[in-house]
Design goal:
The chain is an all-alpha fold. It has helices at residues 2-27, 33-43, 48-62, 76-88, 94-110. The chain binds heme C. Heme C is lined by residues 61-62, 64-66, 69, 82-83, 86-87, 89-90, 100.
Length: 115
């Protein structure tokens, strides 16, 4: 009996962790060719390593005080304000702010709303 209970318990734990993992990655999508295409059309001259670095910078900077927010929760105007407000206290250089903004805007504008 104990054996079955343990098996059941581990199944719950395994399925929960899959669920948590899938949620976490959807907050910070990895860079795809669609993202690169979007960023290039909008800003020009931006390659995959720029966007990968932008994502890293976003994760590193914005997970310091709280968990990472859901990018699709805010529009561009609100994101601009948020990034400014949030980085005031930590004196983030303008170049870092700009690259974080590019990552956030790219994700925001390539997000499939039908999903
Ligand atoms: C120095 C600590 C700190 C850092 C670093 C930080 N935040 Fe925050 N953040 C806070 C605090 C405190 C709050 C809650 C109070 C508030 O809303 O001002 C918050 C709240 C938020 C909210 C929710 C606000 C709302 O109106 O729903 C978002 C979104 C957010 N942060 C995004 C970011 C982003 C993006 C970054 C990286 C650029 C970042 N934060 C970095 C301290 C920080």
């Amino acid at each position: 009996m104990i054996k079955y209970r343990l098996l059941f318990l581990s199944l719950i734990i395994i399925s929960t962790s899959f669920f948590v993992a899938s949620c976490a990655t959807s907050l910070i999508p990895t860079i795809s060719s669609e993202h690169i295409k979007y960023a290039n059309e909008r800003w020009g001259n931006i390659n995959s390593s720029d966007l990968i670095a932008a994502r890293e910078k976003y994760i590193q900077t914005c997970s310091g005080c709280h968990s990472l927010p859901l990018i699709t929760d805010h529009d561009e105007k609100k994101w601009t304000e948020l990034i400014n407000d949030m980085t005031k206290e930590i004196n983030l250089p303008d170049a870092d702010k700009e690259i974080i903004q590019k990552y956030v805007f790219t994700i925001l504008n390539t997000y499939d709303k039908s999903k």
